[in-house]
Write a structure and sequence with these properties.
about 500 residues, alpha+beta, 3 domains, eight-stranded mixed β-sheet, five-stranded mixed β-sheet, 15 strands, globular, binds zinc ion
Amino acid sequence: MSATVETMRAYRFCLDPSDRQRQVLARYAGAARWAFNARLAVLVDGHRRYLQEVAYATYTDDVDEAGARALVKARGGVATMSLASQSRELTTMIADHRSRAAADPDTEGAWLHTINRHAIVAGMRNADRAWSNWQSSHRGERGGARMGYPRFKKKGRARDSFALFHDVKRPGIRLATYRRLRLPGIGEIRLHDSGKRLGRAIARGEAIVQSVTVSRSGHRWYASVLVKQQQEQRGPSRRQRAAGTVGVDLGVKATAALSTGELVPNPRVKASVAARIAKTNRTLARAQKGSNRRRRLVARLGRLHHLEALERARHTHALTKRLATGWADVAVEDLHVAGMVRSARGTVEAPGRNVRAKAGLSRGILDVEPGEIRRQLAYKTSWYGSRLHVVDRWAPTSKTCSACGWVKPKLSLSERTFHCGDCDLVLDRDVNAARNIAALAAVPTEGGDAKARGGPAPEPPHGGEGAGSQKREDHHGGHRSGAIPNPSENPRVRGKPAA
Ligand SMILES: [Zn+2]
């Protein structure tokens, strides 16, 4: 009875390109940057003309700005070239570059024809995405911090990266061997680690490569191969069911506090690495601008930060895998991270309160990336047969006693221990919160299904239905619960609902 679900899954490989290939990759990244900028220029220009029209309408039609915007829209808006027509124009440009290069091999500025067309279109598409993200953020339709106006990518400042996609029926992106990744237009690049797992999934017909993103981080190049994969849907193992539900309070003092009482410490940047980063920064401050020494120092700093990031990533992956494999249900809080980090400073008119206490909080949060932990939990729980529950972010999980339900009227960030005013519970503040989070996600097993108790029904992927399509980032399954249940009425229940 093994049903399968279709998920999008990324396989990330470290590449070992030859020196010549490094140059090609850098050229592709440059081309993607060019494409992004070319597309963004069109969008920015359209926007500028729109604002001009609006300004003109306020003047000629004697209306306020909102009225003028409505008027311009009613008159058909301002025409901006679509991505489709811009990519048609690209075809002409590519042909032009090709014929110029053919006529004179030494001609300068004819390069478009040497780059796989898909890489250029993907770069343009990224600009469209950045633009619409900015627009929806601007209109307040998007969570998280307000995004700035999309900026043009500058060489050396923007991350070196490009994407390639292909016709799935005639795959140009594929593994030539377990150790060699073939990229259209670029050739075969040696993988630093083995592609066996992906290769086998493809051979079994379970995985279909959709696209690849190649990016540079520090001195290394990486390829992230996105595949559509059929995965067997499985429920929790006996061991996971026996462990039941774990509540996870993400990142203030520690990376996570678990309802079991465990505190998962923040990743320690190796003291040696931290010291080298500090020293390199000091030396860099004295280095002459534009000097070779400065360039070397910047490269060294990049490598050190890369080491640090790798360590952090390892730590996060180890934690999320342990949570997803160790319990049947994993409960986290729906944190609004961007808001929490930003709010502390406040504004000039309304400076933030408790800035110092919150600055510590913000730093902690940035160190452990709760958003990333949650994202990983979302897809790993679906891989390992467990379920992720995201509990309401307004539930007062920190202030409520996990034993008796008493709510503390005021709890400052500096209070690390929760003292209950009613039942004498004394517990680490974050463990107390983690227990409340677990209780919020508790799924009743006895006395009927979850619906009967007023909670929302459990959602797939464990509903036992057939293949559904889900993109892993979008899937954060499970319930959202409201108020914290009183534990005396709602004993924490272990295991999977009968539904
Ligand atoms: Zn209590």
